[in-house]
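This week, work through this protein record:
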Amino acid sequence: MNFQFRALDSQEFAHLFALSDEALERHHARRVKVSEHPGTPCRVSLEDAQIGENVILVNYVHMSLDTPYRASHAIYVRESVKTATPKQNEIPALLLHRTLSVRAFDKEGMMIDADVVEGTALNGTIGQLFATNASIAELHIHYAKPGCFAARVTRA
């Protein structure tokens, strides 16, 4: 079963980098200097930020449909990076070394399946979920320990 990872659009966050730290706080955001690698996964580039790089930590609504599963969480975004466009069936490398929560949603935004997997098993899990349940519209991948939204996956 073919799938496609969808990164967040860089333009959605570009304005944040010009804001002062005080203005960022009003947007529920903070400027953070990266101190370890890997450890600061960018949802736009789908890469870990480098040590010394400034990133924005911001609350992001990743499930915007009006359902009981409507959700937001903190995410990191890097400055001046292009929106990642992984190839069909490509797993971004930053996911491969993390424990992940995979949540399957139907087109109404209701969760209909879920699993926790190591990143190295993600390819098989995505394929199995999409192949065995035609009502799955998209998958949301989260970092299992902190619970942060990592990426959205759709059928390709």
User: Anything to note?
Assistant: The chain has a mean pLDDT of 97. The chain has one domain: 3-155. Residues 3-155 form one domain. The first helix runs from residue 21 to 26.
